[in-house]
Amino acid sequence: LGPGLLLVAASFAAFRLLNRALERLVPPPPSARRNRWKWRNIWTSLAHSVLSGGGALAGFCLYPELPEDVANTHPPGAHSLVAVSVGYFLEDFVDMLCNQKLRQSWELLFHHSVVIVCFGIALLLHQYVGFALVALLVEINSIFLHLRQILLMANLEHTTCYRLNSVVNLGTYVVFRIATLAWMTRWLFLNRQNVPVATYTVSAVGMAIMTPMNVILLYRLLRSDFFK
């Protein structure tokens, strides 16, 4: 428990420092200078998505037997990766709370709250870390979602790069977000007898919240990028 919480705190501090440094590392274009906070926030989120999504994908590539028992087994480093992600989601929660109006950010704040609770259970129990690693596969798609936001803020929505990113974004959305959530829901249903009631309830509620949120986001993406 001690090292896990320490890593969460270190991750929170590291992403906070990165957020502060990003305006110098990646200066905002003229079109994004009116919203410098959002520019920094998106780049920070992109850094987390590359780290966590890449780490989760590497774990499943190196340990293909992992899906057979995501409750009790996980590859080396998986617990640390989940702790780092909890630190990031806490940092992003605080960042949005301090810099954005609640009516603009409530969906993401709600999403982050669910993730922090579910990942926190995995950290505290040292169980279901593999299940949390499955959830982090979603971050592979988040890479392209964040790139999309960056391109929009830079007024590059009419470029070939934006159109290419839109196609890759849609493909990874279906594979790593919709299919991943469907697999997690199916696993919970098939293993409901083996999961403690409290853990099952929290996970089921989390999936019940995440699934419609992601379906709505898919609809918004299709309407904006393909059926405008």
TrEMBL record:
Annotated membrane topology is:
Multi-pass membrane protein
Which GO terms are recorded in the biological process aspect for this UniProt protein?
membrane assembly; phospholipid homeostasis; plasma membrane organization; regulation of membrane lipid distribution
Membrane-traversing stretches: 131-147, 167-185, 197-222
Which residues does the UniProt record annotate as the domain TLC? 34-227
Cellular component, GO annotation: plasma membrane
PROSITE patterns listed in its UniProt record: TLC (PS50922)
Subcellular location(s): the record lists:
Membrane
- Looking at the record's lineage, which domain of life comes first? Eukaryota
**Coiled-coil annotated spans:** none
Keywords tagged on the record: Membrane, Transmembrane, Transmembrane helix
Entries under PANTHER family matching the protein: CT120 PROTEIN (PTHR13439), TLC DOMAIN-CONTAINING PROTEIN 2 (PTHR13439:SF2)
| Name of this chain's protein | TLCD2 protein
**Which organism was this protein described from?**
Nothocercus nigrocapillus
Instruction: Tell me the classification of the organism that encodes this protein.
Output: Eukaryota, Metazoa, Chordata, Craniata, Vertebrata
